[in-house]
Write a structure and sequence with these properties.
The complex is a heterodimer of chains A (257) and B (194). Chain A is α+β, with helices and mostly antiparallel strands and 257 residues long. Chain A has a 4-stranded antiparallel beta sheet with strand order 1-2-3-6, with helices on one face. A 4-stranded antiparallel beta sheet of chain A has the order 5-4-7-8, with no helix packed on it. The two termini of chain A are 33 Å apart. Chain B folds into 2 domains: 101 residues, Rna Polymerase Sigma Factor, Chain: A, CATH 1.10.1740; 86 residues, Winged helix-like DNA-binding domain superfamily/Winged helix DNA-binding domain (Arc Repressor Mutant, subunit A, Orthogonal Bundle), CATH 1.10.10.10. Chain B contains 10 helices and no strands. The longest helix of chain B has 23 residues. Chain B is globular and about 50 Å long. The chains are: A alpha+beta (257), B mainly alpha (194). At the A-B interface, helix 2, helix 4, helix 5 and strand 5 of A face helix 2, helix 3, helix 4, helix 5 and helix 7 of B. Chain B: Belongs to the sigma-70 factor family. ECF subfamily. Chain B: This is Sigma-70 family RNA polymerase sigma factor. Chain B: Keywords: Sigma factor, Transcription, Transcription regulation. Chain B: InterPro entries: RNA_pol_sigma-70-like (IPR039425), RNA_pol_sigma-70_dom (IPR014284), RNA_pol_sigma70_r2 (IPR007627), RNA_pol_sigma70_r4_t2 (IPR013249).
Chain lengths: 257, 194
C-alpha cells in the first residue's frame, strides 16, 4: 500500500480496528512516520476519553479477587534490565567502522532477549509476548541496519566519569543509534532517556537499553526518524521516562553531518 | 457549553496515576490498590461495552487489572498517559476476546449491533464520570452519522474497519477516512493533545 494510503489508517489503528496483517504493515510504516505517530497518539488519547465516558461500577468482589490475585503474581522486570554479550567496549577508536557489524551482532543477541524499543507508542506495549518478541527483532534489525548502513557516520563524546557515548546516524535510513559504555546504571528507580534536539526543542527518542553482560554498556535505536534533528541528548528521568526532559542533560552531542 | 469542564475532571486522573504506576512498577501493592480505584470503573465499562456479557466482562476486567500489576514496569509516560496505557490494554483484551468468541455466532446479529448505542446511561455517582460522559456525548453529536457509527462500532463494539464497512454497506476506503475524520473532530472537540 502507498504511504498516503497507509496514513489514512491512523484512525483505524488507534481504535485497534485493523485486522492483523494490516496492523503489522501499518506499524512498520509508523516507525518511519513521525506525523503518523503523533496522530496515532492523539487518537489513542481521544479513544481513552471515549472509554472514560462508559465507566461502570464494579462489584466489591472484583476488587477482592484482583487484590488477592496480584499478591501471587510476579511482576515483569523493567525493559532494559536484561543483558547478554558485551562487545561494544573498545570500539570507539579509529577504524571502528569495520567492526560495527561484529558489534551489531552482539547487540542483536541482546535486543532479541529484551523488550522491543522501536514501537512508536503504548499500543505496542499491550501486545502479547509473541508480538513483543517480533517487535524486538524488528527493532533489532533496524539497529543493525543503521550500524551497517554504507552511509553510517558516527561521532563520539565523553559523558561523565569517563563514560563514552557514540551516536551513529544513517542519513539514507533517517535513523540513529546511540551506544554508550562505562556508564553507571541510573540511580534508584530512574532511567536514561534519549532525545533528539530539533533546534533547541527536545523530542523524546525513547529510553536507553543496556545491551551487554556489563550493565554499563548500552545500545539503543532511537525512536522515530532523525527528521532533520541537529543533535541528541541524554537525561536521567523518573521510571517510565518523561514527555519533556526534567533534568539537565548528561550529554548533548551534535549529530554527525 | 461548558468547554473547560473536562480539564479538571481529567487532571485528577493524570499525574497522580502516573506517579502511582511508577510505585506499582516497584512492587508497591498499596499503590496498586489506589490505581485499582482509579481505573477499575473505566476498565470494566469499556470491556463491557465491547463484550456486553456481564460475567465475561468481569472476567476480562480482572485479567486486565492483573495485567496492569504485572506489566507496570513497562509503562512509559513518554508514550501516552497512564489512563491511556490502562484503557489500551483493556480495549485490546476485550477486542481479542470478542474476535475469538464472536467469529461464528453473535456477529450474525448485525441488526442488534447497529441498534445499540454506547452504554452512556449507566448509573454512576462519580461527578467526574458524569462530566466526561456529557462532554463525549456532546462531541459525538458534532460528527456526521457515518463518522459516529464508524467510531462507535470500531471502538465501543470492537469491530475491525472491514467489518464496519460490511455492516454499514460502505466502501472500505470510506470507512477508513470516516474513522480518521471522526477522530480528528472528537480530538479537537475534546481538546486532546499529545
Amino acid at each position: 500500500m502507498s504511504d498516503a494510503g497507509l496514513h489514512t489508517l491512523t484512525g483505524a489503528y488507534a481504535l485497534h480496528a485493523l485486522p492483523e496483517p494490516e496492523r503489522r504493515e501499518f506499524e512498520r510504516h509508523l516507525g518511519d512516520c513521525a506525523a503518523c505517530s503523533v496522530e496515532v497518539l492523539e487518537f489513542s488519547e481521544t479513544a481513552t476519553r471515549l472509554g472514560l465516558a462508559v465507566s461502570a461500577a464494579p462489584s466489591r468482589e472484583l476488587r477482592e479477587r484482583v487484590l488477592r490475585e496480584i499478591a501471587t503474581v510476579r511482576q515483569e522486570p523493567p525493559p532494559g534490565g536484561r543483558r547478554t554479550r558485551p562487545g561494544a567496549t573498545g570500539q570507539h577508536g579509529a577504524g571502528r567502522t569495520r567492526r560495527w557489524p561484529a558489534f551489531a551482532l552482539a547487540a542483536s543477541l541482546a535486543a532479541a532477549a529484551a523488550f522491543g524499543g522501536v514501537a512508536a507508542w503504548q499500543n505496542q506495549v499491550a501486545q502479547d509476548a509473541r508480538q513483543e518478541a517480533r517487535a524486538a527483532q524488528e527493532a533489532n534489525t533496524r539497529l543493525v541496519q543503521v550500524l551497517a548502513a554504507p552511509d553510517a557516520k558516527s561521532r563520539s563524546g565523553t559523558l561523565e566519569d569517563g563514560a563514552t557515548g557514540t551516536v551513529v546516524v544513517s542519513e539514507s535510513q533517517d535513523r540513529a543509534v546511540f551506544l554508550a559504555s562505562g556508564l553507571a546504571e541510573a540511580p534508584g528507580g530512574k532511567v536514561y532517556q534519549l532525545w533528539f534536539d530539533d533546534g533547541g526543542t527536545m523530542r523524546s527518542a525513547g529510553l536507553m537499553r543496556a545491551s551487554g553482560d556489563s550493565p554499563t554498556t548500552y545500545a539503543t535505536l532511537l525512536d522515530g526518524p532523525v527528521d532533520g534533528a541537529t543533535g541528541m541528548g541524554v537525561t536521567v528521568e523518573p521510571a517510565g521516562g518523561s514527555a519533556q526532559p526534567t533534568s539537565a542533560p548528561l550529554a548533548l552531542m551534535s549529530l554527525p553531518a | 457549553m461548558k468547554e473547560a469542564v473536562h480539564i479538571s475532571g481529567l487532571a485528577s486522573a493524570g499525574p497522580d496515576l502516573q506517579e502511582l504506576l511508577g510505585m506499582v512498577a516497584r512492587g508497591d501493592q498499596d499503590a496498586f490498590s489506589q490505581v485499582y480505584e482509579a481505573v477499575c470503573g473505566p476498565v470494566l465499562g469499556l470491556v463491557r461495552s465491547v463484550l456486553r456479557d456481564p460475567a465475561q466482562s468481569e472476567e476480562v476486567a480482572q485479567e486486565v487489572l492483573v495485567e496492569v500489576w504485572r506489566t507496570a514496569p513497562r509503562f512509559q509516560a513518554a508514550r501516552g498517559s497512564a489512563m491511556n496505557w490502562v484503557l489500551t490494554l483493556a480495549h485490546h483484551r476485550a477486542v481479542d476476546r470478542v474476535r475469538s468468541v464472536e467469529a461464528t455466532t453473535a456477529r450474525e446479529h448485525k441488526a442488534a449491533l447497529l441498534d445499540r448505542t454506547p452504554a452512556f446511561d449507566d448509573v454512576t455517582e462519580q461527578v467526574e464520570t458524569r462530566l466526561e460522559r456529557e462532554q463525549v456525548r456532546r462531541c459525538m453529536r458534532t460528527l456526521s452519522e457515518l463518522q459516529r457509527e464508524s467510531v462507535t462500532l470500531a471502538y465501543y463494539r470492537g469491530l475491525t474497519y472491514r467489518e464496519v464497512a460490511e455492516l454499514l454497506a460502505a466502501p472500505l476506503g470510506t470507512i477508513k477516512t470516516r474513522l480518521r475524520d471522526g477522530l480528528i473532530r472528537l480530538r479537537d472537540c475534546l481538546g486532546v493533545s499529545a
